[in-house]
Design brief:
Largest sheet: 13 strands, mixed
Shape: flat
Number of strands: 40
Structural class: alpha+beta
Helix content: 10-25%
Distance between the termini: 102 Å
Length: 813
């Protein structure tokens, strides 16, 4: 075990160094070595855009490709050219078939290598359409992969730099077919074998020249094994060997899916990402989302019909220009008169973008599709704690990422698969590789906050300048070069400073506070300057006070504020607070990352919504109480359900029921004009009208002469002509009628029995005489005479009335 320890350690160091070397290859090409000890520290400017990629789209135009499929291939080739996000890349488009007889050729180059700037993208859009013109192409019907790939490799080699990635995209619907091509020998039986041999030789050349090959097959008869062979045969280590970046074959069902599959392959090949959008026929609206980490991208619209026109809107709903700058972004359109167009955007506003489609009549049958291909070039800002370490001292390295707009990346989901590392270099020692972590283990403060940390020991042989540089790599993300330059110290630092921030949220135009604690170990005063680095220009940050003087031997806490401009955009804004010692030539003695979330200023509603809602709730409660009281008073004060019974000599002569839920005063008359007196409803102005109304918990009756008296329930009140009036039914306000007055055997609150027993205009008497019953002699069915609720007689044939035991009127209410 002991004998293998050093070897294992060397292997681990070699592996770490390999990872960091791969990551730093993604940074700018300025050397990572330290500056001379006499040189003043100067930061390296960030890169201005994504790195270029040289690529060639090789399109199968053999006889097996139908007219519609060939049109889809041409659109896909144009889509790649239009969607490229770097204006320094070069692209070419090559059609191929075979050469089987005199006058035929295996390759037709429709687009020579073209720089993909604004004019170049338009040229690619125009020349890619030439693939669909088969007249006079001279291509044979076969499928000559070796000739097509050889042409692509030759063009990629011309005028290309060694460091620029090179990619071939191969679109085909079949397999190698050179049986009828004399170039592969006179023996027809051996031509296919010779073709396979030459294909392997071409693939070996692609691997030597670092050219990736991404095959795309569609339709039937695809030789998937051959496609895999071509993907594996080319260069395999693009994009720092990130997951998903290695060339692989794609096979789709038909030509309609070629554009989607090819753009996905293109994004993987050039370390970018694709966001799928929606599809719609014109007139209509398409949408696609761009994430916050995107710094360079193209919104591509495959519209197929050149007569379709588009209008683009940013996430704030504003129409953006097709050329020029707008709200911190730069726009550039191309391909408007072709089947595929693209709006290239530098520093796009994150969120959902919209594309509105319009087209004249007769050009609205083809669906259009939108996608966004993007890449994030992030600033990898690094710090060293302490800022001027001694040789052999353990130091902490931290790194944070933000966009060119100054947006701090705080969502780890946006950086899935990220790899982060740093390299410490300087005078007197070999560079030290430092893998960085975001796992919450010391010295990393919190897992998943996209603030990376690690500790490293400064070599004891360090003698002068130090340079710390960070590097990141993730699918769709690369890091620019922003080194941190300092010097080693020979003893205790003259000044040491620490910075803390006291707030992490602010509105536009507001400020957050912080505290600087500086210790002066020197015998003379030192003037420190507080500054801001890597800040968002849109946030317009200002720090105050700008300078602090620390007396000899003193340790003084000093409060400061960081103010945000009134136009600071919402989101995470950041930067780095720096403390430099002006007395010691501007050497940095302390720093801290600034991460503040800017939220929109509260509106009047945000400030007072609770009062409005509370007041509205109180008003609703008061209104509800009033409504309930009005309803309660209206309903409980009503006379509805009362039954007036007219008697003479203890016998019922007539009944009248009060109807109407809002009836509070009831007028009626007593008809004595016939031998059989009765009760009739009347209006208030009728002569000889009685008035019945509720007063308090009881009833009051006023006769036609104006005399008023209390009307007790169930008790008779004398009227003229030896008549009596009894009021039954209903209930007192707030409680139900129970007890005395309820007919035995009848449920409280049951409805009147007049309709059950055929009575008309009133209640049927509950007890008949000798089994006969009825109202006014109208043949009602006899009801129990004993008041028990059980029948005791038969149907009467018409009596003169019920017995005095008919107390059922009161029980009905």
């Amino acid at each position: 075990m002991h004998s293998t320890g050093p070897a294992a350690a060397r292997a681990r160091r070699g592996a770490r160094r390999a990872v960091v070397a791969a990551l730093t290859a993604l940074c700018a090409t300025v050397p990572l070595g330290p500056q001379p000890a006499w040189a003043a520290p100067t930061p390296t400017a960030p890169s201005t855009g994504p790195d270029p990629v040289d690529f060639s789209v090789v399109v199968d135009a053999s006889a097996s490709i139908g007219k519609e499929a060939l049109a889809r291939e041409a659109e896909a080739a144009a889509l790649i050219g239009q969607g490229e996000i770097s204006d320094r890349s070069r692209a070419s488009v090559i059609g191929f078939g075979s050469a089987e007889q005199e006058g035929q050729q295996p390759v037709r180059e429709v687009c020579p290598p073209t720089v993909v700037d604004a004019a170049g993208r338009q040229r690619i859009s125009d020349c890619a359409r030439r693939l669909t013109d088969r007249a006079h192409t001279g291509l044979g019907p076969g499928t000559d992969f070796p000739a097509a790939l050889t042409q692509a490799l030759t063009r990629l080699r011309e005028s290309g730099t060694e460091t620029t990635p090179k990619v071939v995209f191969l679109l085909t619907d079949g397999r190698l077919n050179v049986e009828d091509s004399p170039a592969y020998g006179a023996d027809k039986a051996a031509r296919q074998q010779e073709g396979e041999k030459r294909l392997r030789e071409v693939l070996d050349r692609a691997r030597r020249e670092h050219v990736q090959i991404w095959p795309l097959g569609f339709g039937k008869g695809i030789d998937k094994k051959a496609l895999q062979q071509m993907a594996d045969g080319g260069y395999r280590n693009g994009c720092a060997d990130l997951p998903g970046s290695r060339p692989r074959p794609e096979v789709v069902d038909g030509a309609a899916d070629v554009d989607k599959a090819l753009q996905s392959a293109f994004a993987a090949a050039r370390c970018a990402r694709v966001e799928e959008g929606t599809s719609s026929k014109p007139p209509g609206e398409l949408t696609v989302s761009i994430p916050p980490i995107a710094t360079d991208g193209s919104i591509t619209v495959t519209k197929r019909d050149p007569r379709v026109t588009t209008t683009y809107y940013d996430p704030k709903g504003r129409e953006v220009p097709l050329q020029g700058q707008f709200d911190g972004s730069r726009f550039e359109i191309s391909g408007q008169d072709g089947p595929v167009e693209a709006l290239r955007v530098k520093d796009p506003l994150p969120g959902q973008w919209k594309v509105k489609l319009s087209a004249p009549e007769g050009h609205r049958d083809q669906p259009a599709t939108v996608r966004a291909i993007w890449q994030g070039v992030l600033r990898s800002s690094v710090t060293l704690e302490p800022s001027a370490p001694r040789p052999g001292e353990n130091v902490v390295v931290r790194m944070r990422l933000q966009t060119r707009r100054g947006v701090v990346i705080t969502d780890p989901g946006q950086l899935a698969g990220v790899q982060a590392a740093a390299q410490l270099s300087g005078d007197g020692f070999e560079p030290v590789d430092i893998p960085l972590r975001d796992d919450g283990k010391d010295p990393d403060e919190r897992a998943g906050d996209v603030l990376y940390g690690a500790s490293v020991t400064v070599p004891k042989t360090a003698t002068g300048g130090l340079r710390l540089a960070g590097a990141i790599a993730a699918p769709g993300v690369t890091g620019d070069r922003r080194p941190y330059d300092t010097r080693v110290s020979s003893g205790p630092a003259a000044v040491a400073a620490g910075v803390t921030l006291e707030g992490h949220g602010v509105h536009p135009g507001g400020s957050v506070g912080g505290k600087l604690v500086a210790r002066n170990n020197d015998s003379r005063p030192h003037t420190l300057r507080l500054g801001l680095a890597d800040q968002s220009t849109e946030a317009a940050l200002r720090i105050s006070p700008a300078t602090v003087t620390v007396a000899p031997g003193a340790q003084e806490p000093v409060s400061f504020t960081v103010a945000f401009g009134a136009g600071a955009p919402p989101g995470d804004a950041g930067g780095r607070i720096t403390v430099t010692d002006r007395t010691d030539g501007g050497r940095e003695v302390g720093s801290a990352f600034l991460t503040v979330t800017v939220t929109p200023a509260p509106t009047w509603w945000d400030r007072w919504w609770w009062a409005v809602v509370g007041g509205a709730g109180l008003l609703l409660a008061v209104a509800a109480v009033i409504a309930i009281r009005v309803w309660y008073g209206g309903v409980q004060g009503s006379l509805q359900g009362l039954v007036l019974e007219l008697r003479r000599d203890g016998r019922t002569r007539g009944t009248l029921e009060v109807r109407g839920a809002r009836t509070k005063t009831f007028f009626f008359t007593v008809d004595t004009s016939s031998a059989q007196p009765g009760l009739q409803r009347r209006n208030p102005r009728a002569a000889q009208a009685y008035r019945l109304r509720r007063k308090g918990d009881g009833l009051r009756l006023r006769d036609p002469k104006g005399k008023e008296q209390t009307m007790p329930r169930g008790a008779p009140v004398g009227l003229d002509n030896d008549l009596e009036l009894v009021v039954r039914g209903g209930s007192r306000p707030g409680r139900e009628r129970t007890g005395a007055g309820r007919r035995p055997g009848t449920a409280a609150g049951s409805r009147t029995t007049s309709r059950r027993f055929g009575g008309r205009g009133g209640m049927a008497p509950s007890g008949g005489v000798n089994g006969r019953g009825g109202v006014n002699g109208r043949g009602a069915t006899g009801s129990p005479a004993n008041g028990t609720g059980r029948p005791s007689g038969t149907a009467g044939t018409g009596g003169t009335g019920g017995a005095s035991g008919s107390s059922g009127y009161d029980s009905a209410f």
